[in-house]
Amino acid sequence: MTAALDLVDRAPLPADVLGEVRAARTAADAAEVRILELALEWAYAHPAAPGAAHPGAAHPLTGTSAYVEPVGRLDEDDVVAGGWFDLPQVAWDAPAAFAAASGTTTAAGARLIRDVLQLAHRLPRTWAATRAGRVPAWRARRVADAVAGQPGDVAAYVDEHVHESAGTVGARTLARMVDEAMLRLHAEDRELEQLAELDRRHATLHVETLNHTGLVEMSLRGDYVDLAALDATLDEVADALADPRLADLVGLAGCATAERKGVRRSLAVGVLADPAAAEALLAAARSGEADARSSARPGKRAVVHLYLSEAGFLGLDPVARLGGAAGGSGLPVLVEQVRDWLARRDTHVTVRPVMDAASTCSSDRYEIPDRLRQQVLALHTTCIFPWCDTAAEACDLDHLDPWRDDGSGGATASDNLAPLCRHHHRLKTLAGWRVRRLCAGTYLWTDPHGRTYLRLPVGTFTLDPESSAAGRLRPRD
């Protein structure tokens, strides 16, 4: 009883816990503001070279631009296009070292530098409130992002109307405020800007969301009329799949009819992937004359890159991996799930020759043959630069030890090739970043300022100067 009373006596009061939480949050907010200040100092310390040619995207209304990235995109969000105009020009290679030291991707570091330049140069009232502690850094960056790429008078309008409430204003309110400013100040140009939005239409399969269930996500952005028509067709196919005779036409008898409509709509996407099967299904549904005979040959095709361990070949490992082999870097999926895919009657599956990802393939030419390319992509799922998560398929395959025509350089071989996205490829080639391959999937990077990073299949580690002598690594993702 005495021990229990002692524990009660020593337990902190709820008010004390909440007070410490508030103090910790205040300290964290102050630290985030300090990071913004340091990012501003870094930008000022790394201006673009005088007279440098900057083929970056110009603002559609003013024709002016500022620039960070010379070729290609930093990531799918493209932090460059339209967002840097009317700001001080920053050296194209400046964000990488700052981002690496912060434990973030280059694109995230570039966006942070862009946001603080927006605050300091185009949102001075909001920036002053942020430095005074009245606006959290993340909310200030939300305002900066809202005006990125907008004319200067629009930024000034938003700054005037939001700086006192920036600590509480929401994203929708900001969007409406920018729209109002554009309508008031640039009514005719607003229509042109809305037309530019058409370039943002996309249909993207998010392979990184694949998990052991075999399910994956896809996102669409398009004209309302087109997507509304697609939505109606999905409804029609889903309703048809509720009839077991119609479901059998597309090889889904027994697996679609019992599902709720939302699930059948998902299955309907797969039916539409085979236009001939979809046409037959809809024709039968509309005529009311269901033909119970199954399609003789599927028109839908899928390519799956599957990697099995030695135990998997013997049936002793229930898990396979999609799109990666080194260090377990691929997406895990149950072998039983793969068997289900192979057994589907509505999809044609092609089995390619087995490739040993552990062997070394090579070529005596600079050009990379397809089999060698596939092996390198099997060993890596992303760009090998610290913290970069750009898909390997979207990257250049870089000769780590450069190729030379006289034969004195590095070989075109799987142990000398690795994926680098275009931006990080240029950093390695032109900006003083150095990389050394330690073993399959493991790379040691050194930035131009002497800081080092260890990139493994599982993530990136910072080699802190004060701790590396003791052999300690500090993970940052």
Automatic annotation (TrEMBL):
Gene3D superfamilies: 1.10.30.50
GO molecular function terms listed in the Swiss-Prot or TrEMBL record: endonuclease activity
Keywords on record: Endonuclease, Hydrolase, Nuclease
Superkingdom per UniProt: Bacteria
Keyword Hydrolase belongs to the record: yes
Residue span, HNH nuclease domain: 371-426
Record protein name field: HNH endonuclease signature motif containing protein
Gene source species: Nocardioides imazamoxiresistens
